[in-house]
Design a protein that fits this description.
The protein has 141 residues and is mainly α. It has a single domain, classed as Globin-like. It contains 9 helices and no strands. The chain is globular and about 45 Å long. InterPro entries: DUF2267, DUF2267_sf. This is DUF2267 domain-containing protein. It holds the Pfam family DUF2267.
Length: 141
């Protein structure tokens, strides 16, 4: 691909690869496709659990392609979803792994949350944490 001169565009594929590699390292996985599915499902669940304004604020902090993944199929009129318990969140993510179930959905989701903490501003991390309900907030913190 020819360089555009816009660093966000030129480096976008490498950023996605870095995020997936970090998830694989954190979870001791070898399959980047599995890490991609986990990242996608966790981002979608997180987005849908937040109010529209907070979801948009978080989206604004994400790198280009990660932001595209985050917003894919989003219907702001249906957020936040209900019910919004920790168990519902983990079940939602785990359902995407029906062929090869997650051994520990909580650990997997926490790995994505940890990645976001490393890549998103601390102020936004605090805002998202404050927008979450108690038990789910404990995974975030």
């Amino acid at each position: 691909m020819r360089a555009t001169g816009h660093s966000a565009v030129d480096t976008a594929p490498q950023v996605v690869a870095e995020w997936l590699n970090l998830l694989c390292e954190d979870l001791e996985w070898t399959e980047e496709g599995r890490a991609y599915l986990l990242l996608t499902e966790t981002l979608h669940a997180l987005r849908d659990y937040l109010g529209v304004d907070e979801a948009a604020d978080l989206g604004a902090q994400l790198p280009l392609i990660i932001r595209g993944i985050y917003y894919t199929n989003w219907d702001p009129s249906k957020t936040p979803v209900h019910p919004r318990s920790k168990a519902d969140f983990l079940d939602r993510v785990a359902r995407a792994f029906s062929r090869d179930p997650l051994e520990d959905p909580e650990r997997a989701v926490t790995a994505v949350f940890d990645l976001l903490r490393r890549k998103v501003s601390m102020g936004e991390i605090a805002h998202v944490g404050n927008a979450m309900r108690g038990p789910l907030r404990k995974l975030w913190d």
